[in-house]
Sequence to fold (110 residues):
Amino acid sequence: MDTQEFIITAHETLEGVERAIEQLALDGVETYPIEAGLRLIFDDGAEISLVSDTQDQQIELRGTQEPVAFYYDSTEEQWYARDSERPLPEVLGTTLGHRLARPVQFDDLI
Fold:
């Protein structure tokens, strides 16, 4: 994937995450666009961020115990965690579910 395609794909994905959180009307978390990413701030002041890294062509989930890097599989048209091969919607849903103490499903929204 060339750099321009990556930038567009990452941007569309981050916008999709923001829309999905709004559609789910998740209480306890707010989204804020940041340079090359999206910040999620929880009611208790904790935050996590999704940041696109153009050089490594990945999206990183930061603010968890360990950052999680996602690569884009253009055949599947999906982002997968480099370490576990879990799709981004599943990892993000699990992460938010732990923070909000309730199940969060993004499967068809991102």
Residues 3-24 form the longest helix (22 residues). The mean pLDDT is 95.
